[in-house]
């Protein structure tokens, strides 16, 4: 633990482990357990991450990512995340238990209970729906088109900016007509005649999103052959909802750096940690390609 966190810029603290840097962030290669221990207390505004899903040794690093890994190593990592998160920050955990022998795994629910015991507030469960889920055929299951994005916080006073992620309203014609019949969609006005009602809009053009997030899986070219990347819209959504420009976003299981890319584009500072250099190495090219779209 660091003695005087106010003296440290968390992005600078990881500079010696950097594989890549920008004006706003650093991508560090290494085990996030070690890297997190270098960060000062309460310096991160938002964690958005997707750890390796259970029982998927496909990252080729010798780790099985089974239930024991989650109850041990992952627990140690989330303890560090609790330490480095600011009091009004959030931790978005993207997770889905797999199905085995005709049964859906329950680790996704156990994780929620374990994290609550660790001291986290279970603030929300967003559902990520995929219109075109990965192909597959099972005897008694359909294609899996949903994943969870659990929001954990340190307190009930987390920062929240739905106005930064408004979505176009999708009123269909019938909906508009129905709304026009409702009394509360009219305002009383002071006409010179002393009476009168004026019809107001059937609804605003831009509305708050719901907890059902609809993003396609990532279909962009995959030079490092990473098996489980975020679609860029996923971290973009949570960064917009839960942080302000200039604040610090962390992804401890950074993979190909999708959270970092979203943070850079949205003018947030960022830290991405990844064990496997091959995956982290694609981030500079992704940043370069996206640069014309950056909003800084
Ligand atoms: C589900 S992937 C994340 C993908 C990422 N969201 C993206 O869009 O590319 C999980 C990543 O965690 C990495 N990882 C596993 N254990 C780790 C550890 N102890 N420290 C840092 N990274 C780790 C894996 O190599 C893998 O790339």
What are the SSEs and their pairings?
Elements: H1 10-13, E1 18-21, E2 25-29, H2 32-36, E3 44-49, H3 67-84, E4 85-95, E5 99-100, E6 103-104, H4 107-118, E7 121-129, E8 146-153, E9 167-168, H5 173-180, E10 186-188, E11 197-199, E12 206-207, E13 212-214, H6 233-242, E14 248-251, H7 258-265, E15 269-274, H8 277-280, H9 283-290
Parallel strand pairs: 2-15, 3-4, 3-14, 7-13, 14-15
Antiparallel strand pairs: 1-2, 4-8, 5-6, 7-8, 9-12, 10-11
Helix pairs in contact: 3-4, 6-7, 7-9
The protein binds S-adenosylmethionine.
> What's the β-strand tally?
15
What are the low-pLDDT stretches, counting only 5+ consecutive residues below 50? none
Number of domains: 2
**Bound heterogens, unique:** S-adenosylmethionine
The CATH first-level class of the largest domain comes to: Alpha Beta
